[in-house]
Amino acid sequence: MEKAGSKILIIDFGSQYTQLIARKIRESNIYCEIYPFNSPVEKIKAFGPDAIILSGGPASVYDKDAPLIPAEIFKLNVPFLGICYGMQIMASLAKGAVKPANNREYGHSKLKIIKETMLFKGCEKSSLVWMSHGDIIVKNPPGFAITAETENCAVAAFENPEKKMYGLQFHPEVVHTACGRKILDNFLFGIVKAKGGWKLEDFISRKTDEIKSMADGKKAICALSGGVDSTVAAVLANKAIKERLKCIFVDNGLLRESEAKSVMKYYKENLNLNVKLVNASGLFLKELKGVVKPENKRKIIGKLFIKIFEREAKNLKGVNFLVQGTLYPDVIESVRVFGASSIIKSHHNVGGLPKKLNLKLIEPLRDLFKDEVRIIGKNLGIPKEIIDRQPFPGPGLAIRIIGEVNKRRLDILKKADSIVTEEIKNAGLYDKIWQSFPVLVPVKTVGVMGDKRSYESVIAVRAVTSSDGMTADFAKLDYDILRVCSARIISEIKGINRVVYDITSKPPSTIEWE
Ligand code: XMP
Fold first, then answer.
1. Does residue 131 share a domain with residue 209?
2. What is the mean pLDDT of residues 88-106?
3. Range of lowest pLDDT (168-177, 356-365, 449-458)
4. In this structure, is residue 260 part of a structural domain?
5. Which residue's alpha carbon is at the smallest distance from atom 14 of ligand 1?
6. N or C: lower Cβ tally within 10 Å for the chain?
7. Helix, strand or coil, per DSSP, at residue 426
8. Cα–Cα distance between 294 and 292 in angstroms, integer?
9. Are 156 and 205 within one domain?
């Protein structure tokens, strides 16, 4: 796709902050993409970047298998900004030296600017920056000027303007770096002289035209989940090809209380989508009977969903395209610096339909991050109830019912979910935390209710803060909110006599219990 304005390429060495760099650049209306460090040079050249940013990463440049890039990339004659590990790569390729630091720096450090430079234009002489490194540059490469230092890091920033190379040991993309925004903008506009052309406002008309010419009179289908991504993708496609788009919403019975009904209402009445509701709750419950292992539940739900969708798709004759809400983070090839990672959970979502459907893909959100999709969604007039909803896993409540999923246990969890959601909303926290939900635990404990002994099940409440779901911290909810949740769950739901709060972060736990 042709992008208006400048293009920045971020080469990823596995930093947890790489996507954050991309987000910050796009906030300045500059288009950027992320490529893994081992991308072929031809691919990098073909992208035609106006500047290259080398991300941080967990490796050390002196490691035997350290991820590096061919020196040829530096001959592209565009400005380079190396961040943390990226700076150390620059240093070592330019004949400097990197060694383990005596004092590692993690967290805030005080940066002192020691040389006036374009990169630091308008920044305070001394300010807090975010550091996260165990190595330091012990020998500054020839031709590079040191521009800033911290107490434990003599080369906290360097540059060689002649070679258009700039390096920062700290992370300008992280909010804790006071002058981070300014530094990135100085790089983009002062050094690269980038032209902003990446405007979300233009996105809707651009994409609608693109889908129109791609679908060219043909029909498309789309699986809706009730979530933001599939809804925004469908509404965009609907704008482009109108009645030639058919949507399918599979109610697997594992959704929240009245969710299928309310989502269908939004789809039809507010968004004018041509959507068919397939009620398959009985089928899902039947297949899940007696299943307790999380991975088995996930696989059964994923497979059954695909089976139903395929059947529906076949019934619609003459369909050529499948509209999917794939996002940019799903597209970025993940960088695995330290070996292959193990499968923690088999994710199921409506974005992962199989190739054997033999349909061409329309993925209008492939270039976007989640918060950009939310902005587009708002501009498209999609109701707040869909746009700002907390993430909900494809396998639904089944993975929040520990042990067997059956109608009785589903009903208990649905009621508990309504209470937790209502109380979190009442406290004004729904949009502030990543997720909040109850989990039904297959444990019975003794209680006393109305002077009588009870022996009932336990509900665990889980609420986490997170920026991307990859890591999370348990939310430090006010005790009063927890007290109200607990009291309401026990008094309003038969079969529960104890409520506990999950106080683990991710890692070591995951957000969902299964
Ligand atoms: P975990 O439990 O792995 O969850 O820490 C991270 C985030 O992913 C969501 N999640 C899923 N989303 N299909 C999805 O679309 C799935 O199978 C799935 N499993 C977990 C989870 O709710 C959290 O936001």
1. no
2. 92
3. 356-365
4. yes
5. 393
6. N
7. helix
8. 6
9. no
Q: What is the mean pLDDT of residues 128-157?
A: 95
Indicate whether 28 and 145 sit together in one domain.
Answer: yes
pLDDT band at 3; cut points 50, 70, 90: low
Q: Tell me, what amino acid is at 150?
A: T
**Chain-wide mean pLDDT for the chain?**
93
Residues 232 and 326 grouped into a single domain: yes
Single-letter code of the amino acid located at 188: L
User: Which residue would you say has higher pLDDT here, 345 or 413?
Assistant: 413
- Which amino acid does the sequence have at 45? K
pLDDT in tens, 232-248: 999 999 999 999 999 99
Band of the pLDDT at 340, cuts 50, 70, 90? very low
Kindly report, residue by residue over 33-57, the tens digit of the pLDDT. Answer: 999 999 999 999 999 999 999 999 9
CA atoms within 13 A on the CB side of 377: 27
- Whether omega for the bond prior to residue 161 falls within 30 degrees of 0, making it cis, is no
Residue type at 365? L
Contact 151, 101 (CB under 8 A): no
Task: Give the nearest ligand 1 atom to 227 CA.
Answer: 15
User: Domain range for residue 114?
Assistant: 7-191
The first and second tokens of residue 507, run together, are 């890692």
Are 327 and 391 in contact by the 8 Å Cβ rule? The answer is no
Give the separation between CA 9 and CA 31, rounded to whole angstroms.
9
Domain annotation covers residue 401: no
Q: Is 345's C-beta closer than 6 angstroms to any atom of ligand 1?
A: yes
- HSE, side-chain direction, 13 A CA sphere, residue 200: 18
Residue 347 CA to ligand 1 centre (angstroms): 7
Checking if the pLDDT of 338 tops 70, the result is no
Domain co-membership, 457 together with 338 = no
Report which DSSP code applies to 85.
Answer: H
Q: Is 348 in the pocket of ligand 1 (CB under 6 A)?
A: yes
- Residue located nearest, by CA, to atom 11 of ligand 1: 393
